[in-house]
Amino acid sequence: MERLCGNRPFWEPNLTLYTDIPDLPECFQLSVLSWIPCIYLWLVSPLYLFYLKRNNKGYIMMSLLNRVKTVFGFILWIVCWTDLFASFHQQNMPPIYFITPLILGMTMLLATFIIQFERLRGVQSSGVLFIFWLLSVLCAIVPFRSKIIHASNDGIVKDTLRFTTFYMYFGLTLAELILSCFNEKPPLFSSVVTDPNPCPESTAGFLSKMTFWWFTSMAIKGYKSPLETKDLWSLNKQDSSEMVVPNLLREWEVEKSNAQSIAQDVNGQAVYSKSGKEANHVAVSPEEVEVLLSDQKKSQQPSFLRALLRAFGPYFLIGSGFKLLQDLITFINPQLLRLLIEFTQQKGAPSWWGFALAFMMFGCALLQTLILHQHFQYCFVTGMRLRTAIIGAIYRKSLVITNEAKRSSTVGEVVNLMSVDAQRFMDLTTFLNMLWSAPLQIILALFFLWQTLGPSVLAGVAVMVLLIPFNAFIAMKTRAYQVEQMQHKDARIKLMNEILNGMKVLKLYAWEVSFKEKILQIRQKELSVLRKTAYLSALSTMAWTSAPFLVALTTFAVYVSVDKNNILDAKKAFVSLSLFNILRFPLNMLPQVISSLVQASVSLKRIQEFLTHDELSPENVDRKPAPSDYAVTVINGKFSWAKKDQPALQNINLLVPQGSLLAVVGPVGCGKSSLVSALLGEMEKMDGQISVRGSVAYVPQQAWIQNATVRDNILFGKPYVEQKYRCVLEACALTPDLEVLPGGDQTEIGEKGINLSGGQRQRVSLARALYSETDVYLLDDPLSAVDAHVAKHIFDNVIGPEGALRGKTRILVTHGISFLPQVDNILVLVDGMVSEMGSYQDLLKQNGAFAEFLRNYSLEDIVEDDEVTEMLIDEDETFPDDALSNHTDMVDNEPVVNEARRQFMRQLSVMSNDVESPKTKSVRRRRCSEKRHGDPHQEKKEAKGEKLIQAETTETGRVKFKVYWEYAKAVGPMLSVFICFLYASQSAAAIGANIWLSQWTNDSGNSTHAQEKVQMRVGVYAALGIAQGVLILANCLLCRAYSMLKAAHTTHLIMLTAILRAPQAFFEATPSGRVLNRFGKDVDTIDSLIPDNIDIWMRTFWYTVNVLLVCSALTPMFLIVIVPLMLFYWWVQRFYVATSRQLKRLESVSRSPIYSHFSETITGTSVIRAYGRNSAFVLMSDMKVDENQKSYYPGIVSNRWLGVRIEFIGNCIVLFAALFAVIGKESLNPSLVGLSVSYALQVTMSLNWMVRMTSDLESNIVAVERVKEYSETTPEAPWEVPDKKPHDDWPSEGNVEFLEYSVRYREGLDLVLRNISLKVKGGEKIGIVGRTGAGKSSMTLCLFRLLEAAGGEITIDDVKIKEIGLHDLRSKLTIIPQEPVLFSGTLRMNLDPFSRYSDDDIWSAVRQSHLHRFISNHPAKLNLECAEGGENLSVGQRQLVCLARALLRKTRILILDEATAAIDLETDDLIQSTIRTQFEDCTVFTIAHRLNTIMDYTRILVLDKGEIAEFDTPVKLIAQKGIFYGMAKDAGLA
Hints:
Elements: H1 13-16, H2 26-54, H3 64-89, H4 96-120, H5 127-154, H6 160-179, H7 191-194, H8 206-211, H9 216-224, H10 241-267, H11 286-299, H12 304-330, H13 332-345, H14 351-398, H15 403-408, H16 411-431, H17 434-453, H18 457-501, H19 503-509, H20 512-562, H21 570-611, E1 630-640, E2 649-657, E3 661-665, H22 672-680, E4 684-692, E5 696-699, H23 710-715, H24 722-731, H25 735-740, H26 758-772, E6 776-780, H27 788-799, E7 809-813, E8 825-830, E9 833-838, H28 840-846, H29 849-857, H30 866-878, H31 883-892, H32 896-911, H33 918-930, H34 936-943, H35 961-971, H36 973-1002, H37 1007-1061, H38 1064-1069, H39 1072-1114, H40 1118-1163, H41 1165-1170, H42 1174-1223, H43 1230-1271, E10 1296-1304, E11 1311-1320, E12 1325-1329, H44 1336-1343, E13 1349-1356, E14 1359-1360, H45 1366-1370, E15 1373-1376, E16 1385-1386, H46 1387-1391, H47 1399-1408, H48 1412-1417, E17 1425-1426, H49 1435-1449, E18 1453-1457, H50 1465-1478, E19 1483-1487, E20 1499-1504, E21 1507-1512, H51 1514-1520, H52 1523-1530
Parallel strand pairs: 3-7, 3-8, 5-6, 6-7, 12-19, 12-20, 15-18, 18-19
Antiparallel strand pairs: 1-2, 1-4, 8-9, 10-11, 10-13, 13-14, 16-17, 20-21
Helix pairs in contact: 2-4, 2-5, 3-4, 3-6, 5-6, 9-40, 10-12, 10-14, 12-14, 13-14, 13-21, 13-43, 14-16, 14-42, 16-21, 16-40, 17-21, 18-20, 18-21, 18-39, 20-21, 20-37, 21-43, 27-32, 30-32, 32-52, 35-37, 35-43, 36-37, 36-39, 36-43, 37-39, 37-43, 39-40, 39-43, 40-42, 40-43, 42-43, 47-49, 51-52
């Protein structure tokens, strides 16, 4: 160096350090200071240019800013080289004068090149150059000052040229620095330009990104008024589902194919065929293949982890790089503290040392803050992408898994995969870097400690090492408890889900109490697990709060006792304390990270298991379009629901000619629906071939309705064509229903179609199929849920030989005999085999089982009353063109009855296809096309679409104090105060210990004196520390294990009770997902998150108070600074809390649609697949996830924004504590300086945690608010009214009387029943008929008071039902509801949840309901487990279970609600005869679809538009030729 400088000195301590006016030698200035920025830029630029080459964001137009920067760059180059040429002119200049200008000039050219290259690559603001200019300016400050000092000392400028060029250089670099703070315009054609609400991050400058300044606009907006969804920025492209999910899926596919190829190598033969499906090789028996496969599965499963790492690793590593930097910088501050204490001990040191140290501490802390938050940002964004990707992958998978796989994971479990497990990964990414960072920090800390205290550090380390297994043990146990708690929680949510889905049934049977008990039993188990967890967490909290203290105690005690000469002075004590404090974080984190890892690994296993489930093989059904006369062929088909199961169908041979109509008939449970599933490719094909030519539409037996408008349900993604749509509505007889619905076809349908009747749902489902215009229609019993005459209408207008689908291939599963003569072919299934097949005539001739069956049931051969038909045909001939418009005119002025009769007449005319003249045909075709288009009525309806499901309410603004008070009340007010007091005293003990330590270090001045006191010093120090530990333990036990669990218990209990007491209308207007969200997420928050939050909040709050107290007590000047800092703190925190709270709320509201859409999809997968709408649904799911991430992302950033600002305050506190220590150096002793500064270094952390916890607490306490909201649901009438209790044997007669009775569904809707009056004597059998929506079901609901009267009353045996308790009423009535609902549990529980009946009773009920054969053949008998929703029984069998329930209860009044719709005729007959014999002395109300079931009833009630149209004996009604006659005629009974 000296040679380069021409023997001028490179470094002079006297000039630099030991003087009041320091300066650096010229040689040092010219070499080191000038080269630093250059070295930086040359090192970074290759990497940076490579990065720019890879990432092109578009092209930025040349702007004024850019031109100025470029010009300044050139001028800088010229200035530097001016120096160079000047050196050539002057003789014998040292080499440095040539080297430095040369290097500088080259660097300036490089910088100018980068400015332009960035512009071409679309970089709006450059971090690399900003740092370069900053370094240049900082390094030029020293020569700037020293040149002025020299000039003023000498009174003359020696080297004018260099003096001038230097100041030009300084001015230009400063200008470049200022210019690089500004942004360029966004690149041309970038998304920013087109996006309506782009995220400012994409256009933010480097400084803005480092300090998260770009977020400020949202913080201000959120503070002024609560944020709404429209205020949220669009998601960055690279975080959106369309980028993230395919990325992961690609890697996962690679992973799967690798695993497969390895598996094949292992096996030596390719047992895996296409895409991971097994192929049964002829050579190997299927059993062997199974064995081989199971071995392989063990050996080689594709690793989901590797796929994740490959997809998200690289981005995450950038964050890790930041973490490494931050870890290294952390250790600079304790060293600076050591120097500061040394400085206060030295008497004559120049004071600028102290100030320099103070500012260096500040600078270090500031740098650390910025770097740390960049690291967090990268981690959180990775976490967010992980969640998006995992949810996307699970969703896509759930659309293609087999039924067997579905059985192994219930809807609840899969939703949990999405919500809980994806969340786990998200949480893990934030800590993942601690895995390597914690050991690194520990090693560095120990290294510095060894330097300070020598070998006695080992004593402290020993304590730490001993604590690790303790913590690990606790973590393991906690982990086990968590799994157990998850199981209980899953069970509770699953049961809750069923309760919500079967709420109507629970109410009708008055079973709520039994189910409440079941839920509370599970909850009790859950809470006891939580209590154990609380004990453990109390221990671990104590361990890790006392750890740093114990370590310090043992280290200091050993240090002082080992050697007489070891004296604990301020420097040693406080430097090691600050190092111990650094140690504390990684040590605490390690167990947490490890448990987090274990949790995530469990989640990983669960997700991987789900993603490796078998998928439905597209090869199951051959869909290739091939020229063939047969649309559907099955050859030797053998199908089962799962590989391991018995085949459900075997020896199926079936050829369906194109355009023909095939009916599939057979008894309950013979495999009719299975056949349809097999054709859809939903079943495992064990043998044989299926092919289906062309596209498929599918109508399932239980209609699947989306939570969307009626129109959306019918269009199902097809474009809307007015004409075609109207025809479809007409054909499916939906037009009259839409007139009844509040918003016409824009009415929103609740989840699972809750606000449509069964018949309407089925017809919407049928309309969807009809609208889709496919080649093959698979109709699984669509006619069972609708009334006889509607079924007739639909058969004629849609399915039958004259219907809209004529010419298409139709496969119709049906129980209705009346349609069979009109179908082309009939397939009779018995026990999963084809018993016979052929046309109607053929089968009659064959005289087999089918003919026998028909003979028993064919109801007087289907003969038409020619006279009426002819009359109608005449009428049609008279008005060939506008027969219909005439009708409508006539209808207006005729009585209602006539109108209804006319409608039936019209349907009749459509009926008899054999007498129909060509002319009528044409009229009927036209009828569809001319259906009054501009029907003003319809338009008006559409305009006022009414939403049934109100948007989920989100509270806005500050969380009311009331909510905290609610929680405090649940905990107990006195207890709450006492807990606060305990926290305060614990923190007082901690402060006491540290003050005692500073007293102890004061002894160091006088060594003999110090030696005598050692025992006492150590003793008191230990006592204070132990007191702190004990207080913590007591606190945690009291807080966590007792009071907060009590709160969790009471809040859940109150909410559960409220939900079970809520009226039926509440469940119709509230999606079950929303209620489940309260019982899952919110209850979980109250169980585990809120106690944690409160705990940490209290601890940090008291800690912060202590720091400020200590600092102010030592240097009272500190108070002056505290006030403005605290004001700033309060201000930032208010901004943050307001914004972040609302973001959290928006996030939780936008989260439930993801799950409800998902559970809806899972229930409808077969429909979605049949229509080939997979990708559309995947898109919908992605949009919902993105919508959720849109509110989550600003939430993360708000934390970073806050962190940077709060830590800045903390850093200021460090700065001022150090500055005041320097200023008050004379009066303070070193130990106090050490105490105050080491405390200040800690405060940043606690300030940050405090705001974070305040905000977390605010957003989590919202859970209490949400639970409270549902706890205050207005309940229905009381379950029991003690003073109005009816007798035990009431109703003994069974007389029912309606008096002027009216009812409506909800406030503000029209009446459904109007002024109904009728009397029914005990033992009468009443049939109730009328078209859909006439109020038939409503009438039965009124008897149970599911709907409360709007006027009038009902009396049963002289008791007014509105006066007695609901349970007293409902338990005395029996209903067989329209939809058979079973709960998961044993069959016995489904029949008798309160265990009131003996086994014999139950068996006799089972016998009478004809389930005996099915149940006694089952190994489990009555303990047969029913799956969720009774999925493992056929619909018919479920209906029989409901019948058995009714037989068990056997009350005087029985109500049948279309109970026999899903049953074949034989079973139906059995049921009817059972009801006739078993309930002969009871009053029976039957809502009938099949009129033959009620023809022998005492009286028949015909409802129309909510009023009684006819009420008399069947014989008289038929004689009257009224509405009933028309219906009977349709059914061929008149």
